[in-house]
Amino acid sequence: MFASLLKQAVKDRAKGEVVLTSASGRQIPVLLSLSILRQGGTPSISMLVTDLSEQKQSEALRRAAKRLAEAQRIAQVGDWAWDPQADTVTWSDQMFEILGLNPAEPVPDYAGQLTLYNPESAQRLHEAVTQALQHGGGYELELRRTRPDGSQVDVLVRGLVEKDDQGRPNILHGSVQDITDRKRVMDALAQSEKKYRTYVDNSPVAVFITNEKGRYLDVNPVACNVLGYEREELLAMSIAEVDVTESEALLLTPFEQLKASGRFQGERCLLRKDGGYLEVLLDAVALEDGRYMAYCQEIRDIKKLQNERDSYMNLLQSTLKSIKSLIMVVDKDHRVILSNWYDHEWVPNEIRNTRPFCYKVMKNLENVCDKCHSVATFSDGIIRNFEDRNPINGSYKDITVVPIFNKQNNVEYVLENVCDITKYKLAQKELLSAKQAAEAANKSKSEFLANMSHEIRTPLNGILGMLQLLQTTPVNDEQNLYLTQAARSSRRLTRLLSDILDLSRVEAEMLHVTMEVFDFKDVMDAVLQLFTPVAHEKNISLECHINPGILAVLKGDGARLQQVLGNLVGNAIKFTDKGQIVIEANPLPPRDHEEYRVLFSVTDTGIGIPDDKLQTLFKPFSQVSQGYRRDYQGAGLGLSICKRLVYLMGGNIAVESEFGIGTTIYFCIAFGLADPFSEAISTDQPRSNLPETLSILLAEDEQINRLATKRMAEKLGHRVVAVKDGQEALDALMAGEFEIILMDVQMPLMDGAEATKRIRAGEAGKDKANIPIVALTAYTMAGDKEKFLDVGMDGYLAKPLEMEALLKVIEEITAKRQA
Question: How confident is the model at residue 12 (pLDDT cuts 50, 70, 90)?
């Protein structure tokens, strides 16, 4: 190297590194700088020698430090040193990365070091450091640190005390290694080992693990039990000492198959510790690292399981055959793996002995149905029910899809329950058609009854009206008798109409009761007032006994109660020729705190009822006497309607009778409790505050009814203007002053409902928009009264009209307006 530099220096200056050997033999790296000096005589050489030893050492240290830092980064290890006297700590760069700290921040002191770790780890570290400083030596700990970003890091911390010349602790050196990944792997291995141990130890069959030479490496408790050995005994043995299936030379045949294919299955004969033999079915698989695992199950148990399975399958097949609907168990590929299609003719014969697709069975399709409910059930495990129509033959199927779960709680199969409901659907259509026809017929019947009622009541109103007017004129006793009997016949015909309409409401389930406050005594008095004159005509005593403990005011349908009592008392009078009729009312214990029950009875001393007739007593159109010879009149509807009304009012009805002696009919009704501060509306309105004469506008299109109603009102002392339709009523109201309007409903040109709406709208004058209007009509079907009140009418009078009813309504409405 020196010669080369010398040659170069002849031409120019030269510089290079060379190694010189000192007298002691030490190698010294130097930097030589050579140059030729040409001054005067002979040229000379100028040489500058620079010692590079320290520089070379520094570079070597830098390279070593770099390699160390790289090694620490790869190994995820950082080193540190702590001077306890000065409490100064130095870290390598890797320490910052492992602990998740910023390298720009200062290294924490000893106390700060402890705060870097979780509390339990910090305590252990402090105890180890204290022990090392007191007694010397080192320590090794696994600690846990929570980084600022929230992540957990497991570290292996090592420490070693360096002592000074006097043997006192001087410096504590140590390292920190990130073992998070290793801990995770170790935990996973531990979990895997735990699972493996759990599976093996809890396996219901014997499990053996061997090496490739047949030595037992592990066995489970079942293996020990079936062979009669302790675990330690088996682990000291090999297969050759247990398996006696074949000669020792052929003993390793299963291992040869395991090496070749990784699997062996066959029957083996094992020797028990007590000398007995055990025939087993062995199923072995190859594991890693030259190990093998074998499962053994006694052939006797297998045959038992097979017999149980065969018995179960026979039972299952018998059960499936007994089910009328088609049952199909379908896998995820839509294959039918089990079915009972033996008796289902619509399933094609050519697919019965195969494993066809369900869509081939159901619709003879080549691909999955457009909307497959089984796919949805496989996905979410929800039971589905739906109707499906085959577009080819028009048949209907009711299909239920039920999930079948495996041990992992995943849907492995679905069961499809298919019912052919074609006949049912056709019958349903026929039934719907019949229902619609019946509803149409029922509607026609209701319309007919409504029209019949209206058409009969209209002339009946004229007849009864004229009879009542005649009774107000001077007549002799004979004429009065005739008039009374004619009026009574008219009223009987009216009641018959009402009974027929009530019966139609019962059949249509449109007979309703209301819950309103009423005066109990008023209802009972009304019944007595109605029937006392009739009873006196037959020389019969009519009595009423009301328990004084019954509340005066109750909540219920007083009108329907009066109707029931009226029917029963009327029947009693009809079938009694001598003696007495007694009405009784007594309270009953309530079933809850919101009801008030009353027991009623109507007892007569009449003809009584034979035992064979009691069963039909409450049936419509049934009477004790039948045929052409009838001793008593009537349509046989009253008791049937009474029974229905009593049931609607929360009670029941019963009869007790002795033929030739008399009859008692009992019924109870559940009323509601009225507000103690409320009062029933009195039916007797004071008349002293009413004007003696009212100006009344009457709108009635039928001439006789118009005359009868007009004369009735005039007999009551009022002035009446009569018109023929709603338009004339509007005109008359605009032209004159009236206190009340009696408005017929069915009229030509403009009916009563339309006229009422216009009056309320102010077309006859704003000052007359609130004039009282009373509906006067032969429409008495359920809901008719409510319709008229809804259009703005204030009251309702049904035809045929009674003079007393007319007086009562006029007084009630007028008194209400004045209030």
Answer: low
Q: Select from 2.20.28.120, 3.30.565.10, 3.30.230.20, 3.30.1360.40 the CATH code of 514-673.
A: 3.30.565.10
Tokens at residue 241, please? 């000492």
Q: What one-letter code names the amino acid at 476?
A: N
pLDDT digits (tens, 9 = 90+) for 343-386: 666 676 666 667 788 777 777 777 888 778 888 898 898 999 98
The DSSP call for residue 56 is: H
Superfamily of structural domain 695-818: Response regulator (3.40.50.2300)
CA atoms within 13 A on the CB side of 443: 6
Residue 441, CA distances (Å) to 381, 428, 447, 501, 783 in order: 48, 19, 10, 16, 20
Please report the sign of the dihedral spanned by the C-alpha atoms of residue 239, residue 241, residue 244, residue 249: positive
Nearest 5°: the CA angle 400, 401, 402 is 115
The DSSP 8-state label assigned to residue 802 in this structure reads P
pLDDT tens figures, 539-589? 999 999 999 999 999 999 888 898 899 889 988 998 899 999 999 999 998
* DSSP for residue 100: T
CB 289 within 8 A of CB 203: no
What is the Cα–Cα distance from 579 to 471, expressed in whole angstroms?
31
CA distance 402 to 418: 11
CA 412 to CA 405: how far, in whole Å?
6
Among the ranges given (119-133, 225-239, 616-630, 721-735), the one the predictor scored with the smallest mean pLDDT: 616-630
> 58-184 is classed in which CATH architecture?
2-Layer Sandwich (3.30)
Q: Which amino acid is at 674?
A: A
State which fold the 2-51 domain adopts.
Complement Module; domain 1 (2.10.70)
Residue 800: how many other CB atoms lie within 10 Å = 27
CATH class assigned to 323-420: alpha beta
For CATH 3.30.450.20, list the domain ranges present in the chain.
58-184, 203-303, 323-420
Three-state secondary structure string covering 467-489:
HHHHHCCCCCHHHHHHHHHHHHH
Which sign does the torsion angle of CA 123, 128, 129, 130 carry?
positive
**Residue 443 clears pLDDT 60, i.e. is over it:** yes
In our burial notation (b when 16+ CB lie closer than 10 A, e otherwise), range 52-67 reads beeeeeeeeeeeeeee
CATH 2.10.70 intervals, the chain:
2-51
Q: pLDDT digits over 86-101, tens only?
A: 888 888 888 888 888 8
Question: What one-character-per-residue DSSP string does 221-286 give?
Answer: HHHHHHHT--HHHHHT-BGGGTB-SS-GGGTTHHHHHHHHHSEEEEEEEEE-TTS-EEEEEEEEEE
Which residue in 547, 542, 516, 545 sits closest to 531, CA to CA? 542
Can you name the residues that pair with 386 across neighbouring β-strands? 399
- CATH 3.30.565.10 domain residues, the chain: 514-673
Tell me the three state secondary structure of residue 116.
coil
Distance CA 505, CA 499 (A): 10
Pick the CATH number of 203-303 from 3.30.450.20, 3.50.50.60, 3.90.230.10, 3.10.20.310: 3.30.450.20
Q: Respond yes or no on whether the N-terminal peptide bond of residue 108 is cis (omega within 30° of 0).
A: no
Res. 292: pLDDT tops 70: yes
- pTM of the predicted structure, to 2 decimals: 0.41
Confidence bin at 683 (pLDDT 50/70/90): very low
| Alpha carbon of residue 330 to chain centroid | 29
Residue 691 CB-half CA count within 13 A: 13
Task: Report which secondary-structure segment, H or E, holds 464.
Answer: helix 422-471
Query: How do the residues of the chain divide into helix, strand and coil, expressed in percent and rounded to 5?
Result: 40, 25, 30
